[in-house]
Amino acid sequence: MTPMDMLLTRASTDLLAEPAPSEAQLSEILAAAMRAPDHGKLRPWRYVVFRGEARPALAERVIASMLRLDANAPEFKIEKRRKRFSTMPLVLGLGMHLLPNHKIPLWEQEIAVGAAAMNVLNALHATGFGGIWVSGDITEDPVLAEEIGFPAPHRLAGFLFIGTPEGDLPAPKRPDPADFTASWTGKPVTFAADRS
Ligand SMILES: Cc1cc2nc3c(=O)[nH]c(=O)nc-3n(C[C@H](O)[C@H](O)[C@H](O)COP(=O)(O)O)c2cc1C
Question: Which residues cross the membrane (predicted)?
Fold first, then answer.
């Protein structure tokens, strides 16, 4: 696979089986995250590894968060989350170590975390693994964030479910990049993607 093939064949999947990356493999994958662009070298990304029994323990915290946010959360949603967080081969918590009063604005810090997460997803694909980034309202729950290790102003950016893809990766039709690109000629640009 050429590097471009690698980038152009990556797809998210939650159909994930064992094995998960070993500690050494995960360390190499996360080394790719350390290459993300990062204004001010703030390194705002943080990774929390949930393996083995840490996964059902996390699942219980996630369910407590769901019920905190909605005491009437439907049972099927609770059970879906319990199963996913308990059984994914590896769950990686994405943390954002944020400095609200820093001269580098918060949005720049947050998108650096996103850029690093994208490198993790690409590195997973490049090493034969796969994953998906999930969030949901629990990601905005400051209690859950604190329980995991991110007291305010720090936050969660979601979780990566990680493992070995089962079967072929999904191959959804991707948009034409031309629809998202415009050349500036002195007037404000518009994009085909925004025209109905
Ligand atoms: C910040 C963020 C949060 C996301 N949260 C969810 C989520 O909670 N559930 C979900 O099914 N997909 C979520 N997604 C989308 C998937 O990670 C994934 O991008 C999507 O399924 C499309 O697959 P693709 O990455 O192959 O294009 C999220 C993506 C991002 C960037």
Answer: none
C-alpha of residue 187 to centroid of ligand 1, in Å: 34
Q: Ligand 1: residues whose CB is within 6 Å? A: 11-12, 132-136, 158
Pairwise CA distance, residues 79 & 74, whole Å: 9
pLDDT digits 0-9 by tens, 110-167 = 999 999 999 999 999 999 999 999 999 999 999 999 999 999 999 999 999 999 999 9
Ligand 1: residue whose CA is nearest its atom 4: 134
Q: What does the alpha-carbon distance between residue 176 and residue 181 come to, in Å, rounded to a whole number?
A: 9
Domain tally, the chain? 1
Q: How far, in Å, is the centroid of ligand 1 from the Cα of 14?
A: 10
Give me Rg for the CA atoms of the chain: 18
Q: Which domain CATH number covers 158? A: 3.40.109.10
Q: Is residue 177 part of a domain?
A: yes
Which ligand 1 atom is nearest residue 121's CA? 25
Q: Which residues span the domain enclosing 56?
A: 11-194
| Spatial contact of 11 and 170, defined as CB atoms under 8 Å apart | yes
Q: Which atom of ligand 1 is nearest to the CA of 136?
A: 8
Among 118, 137, 92, residue whose Cα is nearest residue 12: 118
Q: Which of 21, 16, 145, 185 is nearest to 87 (CA)?
A: 16
Q: Quick check: is 4 in a domain?
A: no
